[in-house]
Amino acid sequence: MNRRSRSKLPQEPIELVIEDLSHDGRGVAKWNDKVVFVQNALPGETVMAKLNRKTRSFDEALATEIQNPSPDRVDPKCEFYTLCNGCSMMHLKEEKQISFKFNTLKSNFHKMSHVEPNEWMEPLTDSHWNYRRRARLSVKWVAAKEKVLVGFREKNGRFVADMNNCQVLEKPLADLLQPLATLFESMSIKAFIPQVECSMGESNTSIIIRHMKPLSSDDHQKVVDFSHHYNLQVYLQSKGPKTIKALESYDDPLGFELKSFNLKYEFLPNDFIQVNRKMNEKMITQALHAMDIQSDDVILDLFCGLGNFTLPMAQKAAQVVGVEGDAQLVARAKHNAEINQLDQVQFYEADLTHDHSKSVWFNVPYSKVLIDPPRSGAWEILPLIAETAAKTLIYVSCHPASLARDTDRLVNELGFTLEKAGVMDMFPHTSHVESMAIFTRK
Questions:
Q1: Burial 399-438 (b: 16+ CB within 10 A, else e)
Q2: What is the pLDDT of residue 111?
Q3: Which domain holds residue 59?
Q4: CATH for 286
Q5: Residue 262 within a domain
Q6: Which of 150, 166, 310, 410 is 20 to 30 Å from 132 at the Cα level?
Q7: Is there a catalytic annotation at residue 398?
Q8: Are 295 and 401 within one domain?
């Protein structure tokens, strides 16, 4: 925000009546004939709020006083909640968070596809606390405070939250926040460490330290000592992902298990894995139940990653083909199939935004398809899916708008029926909506 914009902000809190919730969980109010998005506010509440941003079309504010609390309001468990942007809905009852996510999905279907499923699935949920096994945390040396901050960004996005604990990180990761800050404070390049990425396996933990200047020999030794003291696998990253290098040689790879399926996975610290381990297993179980895999099924798994869905499906099907655009993840998927002794699965690297009608992996008589695309959805690949013989399509989505857009194409252009859909609470206390949709055709 420039100085001119900042000077126009009211210095005193303003009174607002909250009418609704926005797609990202903020309260929606009106002030001076303009929409105001208000953090820490719920529908039906009258709040005193401090404006922190003005634009031509809307304003943003933080509720500083709740004059008539909603019956759906709860006291946030986290002492840093009003400051930290890691969570946005901790002030709302957990069951109401689920309702918000369901309504978000339903609204997107209505607006973008004019379709509703024949049946709504029960929301998929698990523990709301200490569920994150992975996090990318910001790091900032604050000279005025003479300290390093490690954590999520503040709700205004400009600064790093001053926090020493976290209620949604798995406990071993939360316990690293203060030790990491202390380590970075002791280093000569403390002003040039912008980020640290933490990942937990079943029996070990890794961190990737992003540094914009080389470590001195003294810095290097401090990091080595730190890694030994906290039993961490440490990686250094000087520029892009290709510069990630292990601090030392590690014999015990990061890994996770799907205990319901007796499967083990190995991954690198910068590989994509689902953040919520318990919800991941529940999600896979729900997808396989919906797919009703038979021993003669031939299944196509698009955007397969390191084989998260592929390997459980391969335990039941005659053949499963996984396709993924990230070469590193394809290599990991092949390795994971090998360590689990699954022969009836093949993996291919392919950019799924391109035409693959002549690719070897496409010319297979698939009976079922599962897709788990990124936030942008699967728009480009949908016509190719329609060309297969598949009668069942499972769509796992991390963005309700792209799912609704793709549903419009699948149902209104490509001949599929939306049988079931439902939300999955993969990120409790946030507005993030994960969902699953089951499509069929005759």
A1: bbbbbbbbbbbbbeebebebbbbbbbbbbbbbbbbbbbbb
A2: 95
A3: 3-73
A4: 3.40.50.150
A5: no
A6: 310
A7: yes
A8: yes
Q: What is the pLDDT of residue 73?
A: 98
CATH of the domain at 173: 2.40.50.1070
Long-range contacts of 5-12 (CB under 8 A, 24+ apart): 5/53, 5/54, 8/54, 9/51, 9/52, 9/53, 9/54, 10/51
CB contact burial 372-396 (16+ within 10 A = b; e otherwise): bbeeebbeebbebbbebebebbbbb
What is the tally of structural domains in the chain? 3
Binding residues for [4Fe-4S] cluster: 78, 84, 87, 166
Residue list, annotated binding site for S-adenosyl-L-methionine = 274, 303, 308, 324, 351, 372
| Predicted local confidence at residue 5, as pLDDT | 47
Which residue, 193, 177, 190, is CA-closest to 84? Answer: 177
Phi-psi region of 435 (alpha: psi -120 to 50; beta: other; left: phi over 0): beta
Same domain, 150 and 117: no
The CATH number linked to 62 is: 2.40.50.140
Q: One of 398, 423, 433, 438 is an active-site residue; which one?
A: 398
Whether residue 436 contacts residue 421, with contact meaning beta carbons closer than 8 Å, is answered with: yes
| Cβ neighbours around 237 below 10 Å, total | 20
Give yes or no: residues 425 and 329 share one domain.
yes
Are 62 and 178 part of one and the same domain?
A: no
- Is residue 300 domain-shared with residue 376, that is, in the same domain? yes
Mean pLDDT, each 10-residue run in order, the chain (442 residues): 56 94 96 95 97 92 95 97 95 98 97 96 98 98 96 90 97 98 98 98 97 98 98 98 96 96 97 97 99 98 99 98 98 98 98 92 96 98 97 99 98 98 98 98 94
pLDDT digits (tens, 9 = 90+) for 144-160: 999 999 999 998 778 99
Query: So what's the pLDDT on residue 155?
Result: 87
- 332 and 282 in one domain? yes
Residue 263 placed within a domain: no
**From CA 430, how far away is CA 246, in angstroms rounded?**
33
Read off the pTM: 0.94
- How does DSSP assign 338-350, residue by residue? HHTT--SEEEEE-
> Which residue is it, tokens 């989505």?
397
